[in-house]
Specification:
The complex is a heterodimer of chains A (about 190) and B (about 260). Chain A is mainly alpha-helical. Chain A is built from nine helices and no strands. Chain A has helices spanning about 1-10, 15-25, 30-50, 55-60, 65-75, 75-95, 105-120, 120-145, 160-190. Chain B folds into two domains: about 20-150 and about 240-265, no CATH class; about 155-225.
Chain lengths: ~190, ~260
């Protein structure tokens, strides 16, 4: 029981915080601009992979979260700029993804990044990320009436649908928090 | 693997739309997209489509480019339409076979959603086919300029657009090399169990981020050695002036806004 409790309430942002410190130690205004520009480009490339590589490309699309997470770890300002830049670039290279990216992968990236910088515990990071993803999905599903989950979840608002969407958001965010922890650790080791 | 991505789709012509100020085109397309998503009437969507087709007609560009933009996502759009048709159960029942029931609202949504998607792709294609990347960066810098008072770095943002557009082909090449190298070592991005796939993706993520960081450092060093200072307002080699064409475009957009308001109210 204590192990389970520790898993959720243990501080997990050490590697992300070290990366944040590394960026600030070695940063300059020009480097921040070029790094943000490159992260925005990478996010747009990954997100649009589904459109220009039908099939395998859809496996690359979720990775668009990563550059936004890293940009936000660099600084919240960079993360937001990388997010906006990716939206503009998607408008140029793959307009069909403009609807999906700002409300799902991009928003999740911002949530995880902000969580890593300002919150420490796994559960709080996850709560923020899953809430943002849930809000994004709800806007797509109920605002734009976009059938994001196919016929399984309909565009009518019911308590059970909301619970399903939140559970999905929670598990998806958890997966990405764990992946982010792994690559932050690897990246920090490589940069040291 | 990544060679199918279309970047820099700008096609130089001397048409009415090409000669419009980039600011007019950006604001016009953003308003047009907003109108597409606000409207719930099929007749308004038909008017919007007609306006877009007329605009595309006067660009002297082949309609093949419109299809090229839509081709990649056509299966997805069709799928979205079909899902909407069978899953949206409001209005009155029109047809039912076994568990499949088709309602009047479902039919409307099955037309509206794919039409919105297609118009979104056509309108952004119109912008990118008639505006070069330099003009786009200039347009965004000027359109976002009022946000400077709220602390938004519009000049920096325009510079970022230019840099990222320039480096997209380079990143594609590098990603292609990483993916091929990982595949040669036995990593499968679309095969094997979940754990193996995750390992492949984590390697791809770490390597691509490391390359990005190094390249950003190199470019920052090159820029600083040429006396570039980030955050300082730059001047542009080519500036644009609004003219009578922009006035006509503004009137057309106002006409569309009025039609949408009249139909939706």
């Amino acid at each position: 029981m204590k192990k389970w409790f520790m898993f959720w309430f243990h501080s997990v942002n050490k590697d992300a915080f070290d990366l944040h410190q590394y960026f600030h130690r070695t940063s300059s205004k020009t480097k921040e601009i070029t790094f943000t520009a490159f992260l925005g480009a990478l996010a747009a490339i990954f997100q649009s992979a589904g459109g220009f590589m039908p099939g395998v490309g859809y496996f690359f699309s979720p990775i668009a979260t990563v550059p936004i997470v890293l940009g936000t770890i660099y600084s919240i300002h960079s993360g937001l700029l990388a997010y906006l830049l990716s939206i503009v670039l998607l408008m140029i290279i793959q307009p069909s993804e403009i609807i999906i990216f700002p409300f799902t992968t991009g928003l999740l990236g911002l949530g995880i990044g902000v969580g890593f910088v300002y919150l420490k515990k796994r559960i709080t990071i996850l709560a923020l990320a899953s809430f943002l993803l849930f809000a994004g999905i709800a806007i797509l599903l109920y605002g734009f009436r976009f059938p994001l989950f196919g016929p399984s979840i309909k565009s009518t608002i019911t308590i059970i649908n909301i619970v399903y969407i939140y559970l999905f958001s929670f598990f998806y965010s958890w997966l990405w928090v764990e992946i982010s922890l792994i690559y932050c650790r690897k990246l920090r080791i490589m940069l040291d | 693997m990544f060679e199918y991505l279309l970047i820099g789709r700008y096609i130089h012509k001397q048409s009415f739309v090409h000669r419009l100020d980039p600011r007019t085109k950006i604001i016009g397309i953003c308003l047009f997209i907003l109108l597409i998503f606000v409207t719930n009437s099929i007749s308004v969507l038909i008017v919007q489509s007609a306006v877009l087709l007329v605009l595309f007609g006067i660009t002297h560009l082949s309609f093949y480019f419109l299809w090229q933009g839509l081709k990649g996502v056509f299966p997805l759009i069709t799928f979205v339409g079909l899902i909407s048709l069978v899953s949206y159960q409001e209005g009155y029942l029109i047809w039912s076979v076994g568990p499949i029931e088709i309602y009047s609202e479902g039919i409307q949504l099955a037309i509206l959603l794919p039409a919105r998607f297609s118009l979104l792709i056509f309108s952004t294609s119109l912008l990118t086919l008639t505006t070069s990347s330099t003009e786009l960066a200039f347009g965004f810098a000027r359109v976002l300029r009022p946000l400077q008072y709220l602390g938004f770095p519009s000049e920096q943002f325009a510079f970022m657009i230019t840099v990222s557009i320039r480096f997209i082909p380079t990143f594609l090449e590098e990603l292609d090399i990483i993916v091929k190298a990982q595949t040669a070592r036995g990593s499968g991005f679309n095969q094997g169990n979940m754990a193996n796939r995750m390992k492949s993706f984590v390697s791809l993520i770490v390597l691509s981020m490391l390359l990005t960081l190094r390249r950003a450092e190199q470019l920052a060093l090159a820029l600083e050695s040429r006396c570039y200072r980030g955050g300082v307002e730059r001047n542009w080699r080519m500036t644009h002036q609004m003219g009578w064409r922009d006035g006509i475009a503004a009137i057309a957009i106002l006409f569309l806004i009025m039609i949408t308001i009249i139909y939706e109210l």
